[in-house]
Amino acid sequence: MSLLRIRKPKTRKGKKLLLAREPQLIEGPRNMLFLDGRKCGGDVKSCMKDMQQLKKPLVKVLNRNNDITPFEDPTSLEFLTQKNDCAMFAFGSTSKKRPNNIVLGRIYENEILDMVELGIKRYMAMSEFKTEKIGTCVKPCLVFNGPKWSQSEELRRLKNLLIDAFQKDKVEAIRLQGIEHVMSFTCTEDLNILLRSYKILLKKSGQRTPRIELVEIGPSADFSIRRTKIASEDLYKQARKQPKQLKVTKKKNITHDELGNTHGRIHLGKQELGKIQTRRVKGLKKSPEEKKADRQKKKDLMKAAAQELLTNNE
User: Fold this and answer.
1) What kind of architecture, by CATH, is found in domain 28-228?
2) What are the DSSP calls for 19-62, one per residue?
3) Going by C-beta distance under 8 Å and a sequence separation of 6 or more, which residues neighbour residue 266?
4) DSSP state of 275
5) Which residues contact 26 (CB under 8 A, 6 or more apart)?
6) Helix axes 153-166, 43-55, angle to 10 degrees
7) Which of 22, 161, 169, 224 is the most exposed place for a label (fewest CB within 10 A)?
């Protein structure tokens, strides 16, 4: 039996599902799969529950415990993400060797692209903060503090992974009243990741721009980086490659002014005005007197030229 057989849909709904899973020119928001390991409880459960709350509605949850070791054998994890049509995953587990463990990763071509293992050193759930919470499906502002984020390739990939994990729909324009939630990620000198979550309050300031206050609403966590598995530079570049149809090509000799008007510059060759066929208009024809004057002028010019030649010969 061939393992490379083509799976043909039998129903119209099945064909629609397979077409939706194919690569698209403009990809939609990514779903995230949450699943537990052999043992999972305590801070890991609370962290996974809060992450699901922040990620809604792009969430799929598997409630059963799964005997999976992502860094040793990721085949089961890749199968579950493909089956549930998820491009990202969060795997929680706890053991004696690695207590309070969370693995964040993403998928490319049904295989794991990047994967980072984080250990929970301290955690405060959203329920422990007795403050007013934000609504569901609110897009957060992501803030990354500290110069460490750009000092190594692992931290750069982790930053990109966190952006993918908490980013929702792409936003073309925003308004000030629509900014309600901010998530702060700080990388310390000892390479710990500090997660803080705040609600934005707009207060009266007596001016046009309001005064901004931040109220911590949770979750609040301190993570340590344990293990990382990042893709090679070639594979990472291939995963980020954009189709030619979406690339913006620069057009020459076109500029835009401050008012949004488009100005174009056209380069023309040398124009031969004598060969241009113009329309003969009756009103532009010469009168008999003008024609007679032109003939007399030509005769005078010819006489003057002949007289000059005779003078030169003498």
Assistant:
1) 3-Layer(aba) Sandwich (3.40)
2) HHHS--SS--PPPEEEEE-SS--THHHHHHHHHHHHHTTSEEEE
3) 253
4) G
5) 246
6) 60
7) 22
Name the pTM for this structure. 0.73
Q: What is the pLDDT of residues 27-61, one digit of tens each?
A: 778 899 999 999 988 899 999 999 999 998 899 99
pLDDT tens figures, 165-222: 998 877 777 777 778 999 999 999 999 999 999 999 988 888 888 898 999 998 999 9
Residue owning tokens 């189709």 = 243
* Span 114-137, average pLDDT: 91
How many Å apart are CA 204 and CA 201, to the nearest integer? Answer: 10
For residue 169, CA distances in Å to 50, 54, 242, 300 come to 20, 14, 18, 85
Domain ranges for the chain, please list them.
28-228
Contact 226, 192 (CB under 8 A): no
Written as six digits, the tokens of 258 are 């401050």
What string of DSSP letters covers 226-242? EEEE---HHHHHHHTPP
Whether 116 and 156 have beta carbons less than 8 Å apart is answered as no
Give the mean pLDDT of 274-281: 68
